[in-house]
Write a structure and sequence with these properties.
The protein has 7 helices and no strands. By secondary structure, it is an all-alpha fold. The protein has a domain of 84 residues. It is elongated, with a radius of gyration of 43 Å. 34% of the residues are buried.
């Protein structure tokens, strides 16, 4: 009996909560009102005063408690939504489909709206061609994520783990990668114009053909990175470790390379006009066919230990000074030696100590020799 009553009350409260509350109030009134009637008839004035004071107190309590319950309920709902959005992302991690990319991107935006802007798990997520413009993903684990051709303008990826991520042809203009781990990332042909890469780790990253115009790379690590054909116009590369980096055919117009370590770097065919090279280390660097017109540097000793200066374009006065001090870097000494050495004359057929004979003389000599031997 009691069990059936409990089940009915539970069902009614779930399906019709307002009606349930009204019935509870009505039941309480049916108990309280009859019990209060004798006091009302005996002391009517005091009864009214007491009822009014209790009413105001009850209303105030209901207001405070109701507001508190509402706030707690919203917090609980918000927490449940966050958990649900994270679970929906994790359910499709690893799926290689446009649907997965859409669902993940949608739930990222939902989490951002709920105030979740960090520590989102996107390991190996498929987000090819997804639109995540202005998304906030700081400190998120995004190892191996596929963001190929994605729209990531002004996205916050600071301190994120992006090792091995694929940003090929992605639009990452004005994005923040401050302190991010981008080791081995694929950034080929990505648009990183005015992006913030301060203190980012780009070791071994492939930036072939990427657009890094006016990017901030202060204290970034770009060791062994591939920057073949990269547009680094006006980029801040001061004090960076660029040892062995591949800048072949890169555009470094107006770039700042002050105090940068470019030892062993490949700068062949690079465009370094008006670049600031003061205090840089170019030992062992290859500068073949590099353009260095109007470049800034402390003195010509900067180029003393480079691999070669063959076909490098300098300002005329700089080139004259370098050729005078380091002719071997231009190959001038070898050319002079080659010009000074005359080629040996080829011996003619008549040269030598051997005698020459006519046919008659040879035949007579042969007969004489035959007679002697016989």
């Amino acid at each position: 009996m009691l069990n059936k009553l409990y089940n009915r009350i539970e069902k009614l409260s779930a399906e019709k909560p307002v009606l349930t509350a009204f019935l509870v109030f009505l039941g309480a009134a049916l108990i309280v009102v009859p019990a209060s009637l004798p006091f009302f008839f005996q002391y009517p004035e005091e009864f009214v005063v007491n009822v009014m004071s209790e009413t105001y107190g009850t209303l105030f309590d209901m207001l405070i408690i109701g507001w508190l319950l509402l706030w707690l309920n919203k917090l609980a709902d918000r927490r449940q939504r966050k958990i649900r959005y994270r679970e929906e992302i994790e359910d499709v991690l690893g799926w290689q489909s446009p649907e997965a990319a859409h669902r993940i991107a949608t739930n990222i935006r939902r989490l951002n709206r709920e105030g979740v802007t960090t520590d989102i798990n996107l390991v190996e997520a498929h987000l090819k061609s997804a639109n995540l413009e202005q998304a906030r993903l700081a400190n998120s684990d995004m190892w191996g994520v596929n963001l190929q051709q994605a729209t990531l303008r002004k996205v916050d990826l600071s301190q994120a783990n992006l090792a091995g991520a694929n940003f090929k042809r992605a639009d990452v203009e004005q994005a923040s990668f401050r302190g991010a781990d981008l080791r081995g990332a694929n950034l080929m042909e990505a648009d990183l114009e005015r992006a913030d890469l301060e203190e980012a780790n780009l070791s071994g990253a492939d930036l072939t053909g990427a657009d890094l115009q006016y990017t901030t790379l202060k204290n970034a690590v770009i060791e062994r990175a591939t920057l073949h054909g990269t547009n680094l116009r006006g980029a801040d590369l001061e004090h960076l470790n660029l040892r062995g980096a591949d800048f072949d055919d890169a555009n470094l117009l107006d770039a700042s390379l002050r105090q940068a370590d470019l030892a062993g770097a490949d700068l062949r065919d690079a465009y370094l006009e008006r670049a600031d090279l003061r205090g840089a280390d170019l030992s062992g660097a290859s500068l073949e066919r590099t353009e260095l017109l109007n470049a800034e540097f402390d003195d010509i000793d900067l180029f003393a230990e480079v691999d070669t200066l063959h076909e490098v374009q300098f300002d005329p006065d700089v080139e004259d000074a370098l050729r005078s001090s380091y002719p071997h870097l231009f190959g001038d000494e070898e050319e002079e030696k080659a010009a000074a050495e005359e080629p040996e004359a080829a011996p003619s057929e008549d040269d030598g100590n051997e005698d020459t004979y006519t046919e008659d003389e040879a035949e007579a000599a042969y007969r004489t020799l035959s007679e002697r031997t016989s």
